[in-house]
Amino acid sequence: MQLKKRVQELENKLTRIEKEHKKENIVIKGLDPKENINKIDVQEFIEDKMGIKVEIKEVERIGINKSKMIIKAKMNNMDNKRLVMKNKNKLKGTKYFIDPEFTNEEEKIQKKLREVARVERDKGKQVKVAYQKMRINSEWYKWDVQKQELTKNETNGRPKN
């Protein structure tokens, strides 16, 4: 039992380190493929599409999905990241998407939430997906990590993470 507890502690520590490493990163999906993309290109994209000026430390192309490029951008600071995340709704209705860079586990959870959201929207419900939680019509649900399922928020209002 002691070994199991130690393994869990080490996994938690590794997750914290991974989250710390990714906290200033964003992922941009939907860009047209380009041989060499640099931080100036991404800063201009954000200014053009979102109307905000930010500084970026570095940019890395992390893949292509359905002939659209996926890039990771490390923001200059957390204020720049918050500004981008606050304004990402300006991309609604376009082919572009911006999300924070998640850990693998967080990405799996968000994917499950998006699948649930798609089903609920097809039923005509209004859905908003947030970090490990979602609102269906006016009711909030939170992802239960232990149960690996969505659970209804028992208190009124948006659940805290």
Structure, explained:
- This protein is an alpha+beta fold and 161 residues long.
- It folds into 2 domains: 2-101, Alpha-Beta Plaits (2-Layer Sandwich); 105-152, no CATH class.
- Helix content is 39%, strand content 29%.
- The strands form 2 sheets. Strands 2-3-1-4 form a 4-stranded antiparallel beta sheet.
- A hairpin with a 2-residue loop joins strand 2 (56-65) and strand 3 (68-75).
CATH architectural category of the largest domain: 2-Layer Sandwich
Strand proportion: 25-35%
Q: What is the string of SSEs from the N terminus onward?
A: HEHEEHEHEEEE
Question: What is the count of distinct domains?
Answer: 2
Helix and strand topology:
Elements: H1 2-22, E1 25-31, H2 39-50, E2 56-65, E3 68-75, H3 78-87, E4 97-100, H4 104-122, E5 127-130, E6 133-136, E7 139-144, E8 149-152
Antiparallel strand pairs: 1-3, 1-4, 2-3, 5-6, 6-7, 7-8
Brief characterization of the structure:
This protein is 39% helix and 29% strand. It is of the alpha+beta class and 161 residues long.
List keywords for this structure.
161 residues; 8 strands; 29% strand; 4-stranded antiparallel beta sheet; globular; 4 helices; Alpha-Beta Plaits; single chain; alpha+beta
